[in-house]
Write a structure and sequence with these properties.
Blueprint: H1 5-8, H2 17-49, H3 54-69, H4 72-93, H5 104-129, H6 133-141, H7 146-176, H8 188-199, H9 202-232
Helix pairs in contact: 2-3, 2-5, 2-7, 2-8, 3-5, 4-5, 5-7, 6-7, 7-9, 8-9
Length: 237
């Protein structure tokens, strides 16, 4: 039975519309989770690299150098397959025989988040270095506590300076989720591979996957652009 293009990508009994949308939601969830983890690690990494302690600065430099220098796909392999082997050995030593595989989504988010955090570290550090030191000194002169200074002066302006670069990091994170197909996570790319193999229509389903990645990227990129403009509004008056 020959199906039309609309039947293949539709939501009928022979359509792949619902599986592709489900996979797209998994892609978005993995990207958001990985980016959020990367944001946390980026703030910590920036604090380390801006520290007065030589040891802490060295730790921050080691983190960014290593995880920006190793290919992302290799990080995914090391975390998933290497982690599964290590976890299996621990379980076997504890009296539980067999092979134990780590959850693909959690490990994928961890790998993407750690790599993203290395790039976000430099983004946040650069944003902090662009701050007007006079405002910080004025805040200290007014008796602001460190937390109040961070909340009212440092964090809002550093985020404003960092946001354009963070938009680029987000786009990279979104595309890196396609790498998680190699560890069995049924995200958008893996689902399109399955659909293409089942229907023998690779051009159609790879094209649909590309279009869905593009749409997600444009929509989320527009949201980041609006946030950037809103944060810049108080200083543009």
């Amino acid at each position: 039975m020959t199906l039309s293009i609309f039947e293949l990508i539709g939501f009928g009994p022979h359509g792949w519309g619902l599986p592709l949308l489900t996979a797209a939601s998994i892609t978005l969830a993995a990207a958001v989770s990985g980016f959020a983890l990367g944001s946390l690690l980026g703030v910590i990494g920036a604090a380390l690299k801006l520290s007065r302690s030589r040891i802490l600065r060295a730790a921050g430099t080691f983190y960014t150098t290593v995880f920006r220098g190793i290919p992302e796909i290799l990080i995914v392999y090391l975390f998933y397959f290497g982690g599964s082997v290590a976890f299996t050995k621990v379980m076997n030593m504890s009296g539980f025989p067999g092979f134990f595989s780590l959850p693909a989504f959690a490990i994928g988010v961890l790998a993407v988040g750690i790599v993203s955090g290395a790039y976000q570290t430099e983004t946040y550090r650069a944003g902090f270095l662009r701050l007007d030191r006079g405002q910080i000194e004025a805040g200290l002169a007014c008796g602001m506590s460190d937390f109040l200074l961070l909340r009212r002066i440092i964090a809002p302006q550093a985020l404003r300076f960092a946001l354009p670069a963070l938009g680029n990091v987000w786009q990279s994170v979104l595309k890196e989720t396609a790498l998680l197909s190699v560890i069995g996570l049924t995200e958008l790319l893996r689902q399109s591979i399955t659909a293409a193999g089942s229907t023998r229509e690779p051009l159609l389903f790879y094209g649909v996957a590309a279009a869905m990645f593009f749409i997600i990227g444009r929509l989320t990129g527009s949201l980041l652009s609006r946030t950037e403009k809103r944060l810049a509004r108080p200083w543009s008056r």
